[in-house]
Amino acid sequence: MQAAGRFVVLGAFVALTAQARAQTALPLKHAPARTQTAITPADLMTRLYMYADDSMMGRLAGSEYNLKATAYIASEVKRFGLQPAGDSGGYFQNVPLVKRQLDPSTALSIDGTALRTWDDFVPRDPGRATRPFDGTTVVFAGVIGDSSMITPEQATGKFVVVAARSFQQVNRGAILGRFRSAAGIAVTGLESFPPQAINFFRQPQTILKDNPAATADTTSLPVYIYVNAAATRALLGASPDSVKAGAAGKTVHGTVSFVDTPAPARNVVAILPGSDPKLKGEYVAIGAHNDHVGFDQTPVDHDSIRAFNDAMRRLELAAPDHRVNPAQVQQIQVNADSLHRIHPARKDSIYNGADDDGSGTTSVLEIAEAFAGARGSARPKRSLIFVWHTGEELGLFGSQYFTDHPTVTRDSIVAQLNMDMVGRGRADDENGGGPGYLQLIGTRRLSTELGDMIDTVNKARKQPFTFDYQFDATGHPEQYYCRSDHYMYARYGIPIAFFTTGNHRDYHQVTDEPEYIDYDKLAHVSQFVYDVATKVANLDHRVVVDKPKPDPHGNCVQ
Ligand SMILES: [Zn+2]
Predict the structure, then answer these.
(1) 452: pLDDT confidence band, cut at 50, 70 and 90?
(2) Global pTM?
């Protein structure tokens, strides 16, 4: 699943507990009798230990390790005998990601004195072409929120300085929206930004560089920078306290631009043709994401982080509002620090993403293998299209690209079943967690029939799941409906179902490892999604869309 905010606090420095170490061996409870293509805990375990191995280096989209991970998936679906449905007759659909970073020629000067990049000013990429500003006049726009701020018309063609009282006040989208006809925008208060934010701004950003949608606005935008107090005085030729909104400042010279380098990333797409000549032109899509978040340059102590997050999760689950207070965090730190002195660190720097989304990826592989081996009436009437999306963690890029450029007709996809993080949900992961715990999201947002059908398939199971629908609630702050690949299908009016066993202490940590996965649970979820796919694929009509479709190019609404 995609991170909710851009800055994730990755771990703390805590000690190893005996309990954390005791969890490293996971016994297989049973080895059920099986045909060659049955979905089994053992097969899922074998696959996941390969897919979430350290050698995959966290599978980051835009890195060579995403190519390595997707090569494994493609070799498997080829072995199953599925039809390739990517670019030019292959299993891969290349997704045009680029690494965007500041052009080294970037420079800003006033009266012949250069401002220092990253110290005096920090440029932000507005996401598309920017205007030249060399030789334009600086104008003080006033303080954010004050009624005396200049109008958008007064800013046209100027280099405006916008004063912010603190970084919390800065809403880049709103500022760019108000002064979009300016040549450049400098926002003050750089000193108040947290160092993590500045570090984040300095990293190259991996983005999807696709032909903009027909409806997209392609006009250029102003250059956008944050400035410190010294740069503010240089631009205005005076202190902002001494000038009124609308006052002219100095003349600014220079260029600020970004350069793109292609970054490798690809979806894997494979088809199992349907058995019914009339229905095989329609598809049930089954998906997961093939990428994760890569690795860090600086290793951390695996066991310390897990022990800390374990203690935090217990408190979160026990608290009525799921919030932990600072005194409790302090107490965990004190316990941890004393233990830390006794135990050696096991260093770890790789985000293996066993649950996120190694679990979904291997589950879709097992489902695909099971369907590929199905004969006679077990073969579904409609076709199935399996898509392992790339770049989910970076912004749902692979699913955005696939649904914007589908390799089958978009309208022929009758539903999409998405699995992201489906190997956890134990009692110590979730309130109400256990072997039958499963979260469902979005199942009735476009089609009541799809949601009802999923409930019916579940009731027919020997051991039905207990569904947790709380994260499907309209406006839920966790925004799960908007944070995984299914949404990219839903925005085009394709009914979706998002299956997940939910968040846990190892989410986006180096500790999301295969040893902490519940393989029996993973097999049950996989079998269930297999059954749901069969039901949707064999229905005598396509699932009915009875709810309003969203704007495909608008913002997702939870
Ligand atoms: Zn994730």
Answers:
(1) very high
(2) 0.84
318 CA distance to ligand 1 centroid (A)? 24
- Split into its structural domains, the chain has a count of 2
Rg, Å, the chain Cα set? 26
Structural contact between residues 405 and 460, judged by C-beta atoms closer than 8 angstroms: no
> From ligand 1's centre to the CA of 356, what distance in Å?
5
Distance 215 CA to ligand 1 centre (A): 30
Same domain, 88 and 119: no
158 and 236 inside one domain: yes
Q: Read off the CATH number of the domain in which 193 is found.
A: 3.50.30.30
Provide the mean pLDDT of the chain.
90
Residue 37 reports pLDDT greater than 80:
no
Shared domain check, 132 and 248: yes
CA of 4 from ligand 1 middle (Å) equals 9
Where does a domain end: 256, 285, 306? 256
What's the CA-to-centroid distance between 15 and ligand 1, angstroms?
Answer: 25
Asked whether residue 554 is domain-assigned, the answer is no
Same domain as 204, residue 123: yes
Whether residues 481 and 533 share a domain: the answer is yes
Same-domain pairing of 176 and 279? no
Ligand 1 centroid–CA 303 distance in Å is 21
Among 318, 315, 337, 343, residue whose Cα is nearest residue 328: 315
Report CA(339)–ligand 1 centroid distance (Å).
Answer: 30
How many residues comprise the chain? 558
Span from the CA of 392 to the centroid of ligand 1 (angstroms): 8
Q: How far is the CA of 223 from the centre of ligand 1 (A)?
A: 31
- Cα separation, 431 vs 315, whole angstroms: 11
Residues ≥6 apart with Cβ < 8 Å to 10 = 296, 300, 305, 508, 509, 510
Asked if residue 545 has pLDDT above 50, the reply is yes
Segment 31-57 shows an average pLDDT of: 85
Rounded Cα distance, 397 and 484, in Å: 10
- Report pLDDT digits (tens) over 157-213: 999 999 998 888 899 989 999 999 999 999 999 999 888 888 889 989 999 998 665
pLDDT band at residue 23 using 50, 70 and 90 as cut-offs: very low
> In this structure, what CATH number is given to the domain that contains residue 369?
3.40.630.10
Ligand 1 centroid, distance to 57 Cα (angstroms): 15
Alpha carbon of 1 to ligand 1 centroid (Å) = 3
Between the CA of 67 and the centroid of ligand 1 the distance, in Å, is 18
Q: What is the pLDDT of residue 9?
A: 33
CA of 394 to the centre of ligand 1 (A): 9
Residue 133: which domain range?
A: 104-256
Residues 55 and 111 in one domain: no
Whether the CB-CB separation of 236 and 139 falls below 8 Å is answered with no
For the residues of 123-173, what is the DSSP string, one character each?
EE--SS-B---TTEEEEEEEETT-TTPPPHHHHTTSEEEEE-SSGGG--HH
Strand ranges (DSSP E) for 189-238?
A: 205-208, 223-227
pLDDT for the residue 5: 52
Determine the distance separating the centroid of ligand 1 and the alpha carbon of 466, expressed in angstroms: 24
50 and 88 housed in the same domain: yes
The rounded percent of the chain whose pLDDT value lies above 70 is: 93
Ligand 1 centroid distance, CA of 76 (Å): 23
Q: Say if residue 225's pLDDT is above 80.
A: yes
Show which of 232, 256, 280 is a domain's final residue.
256
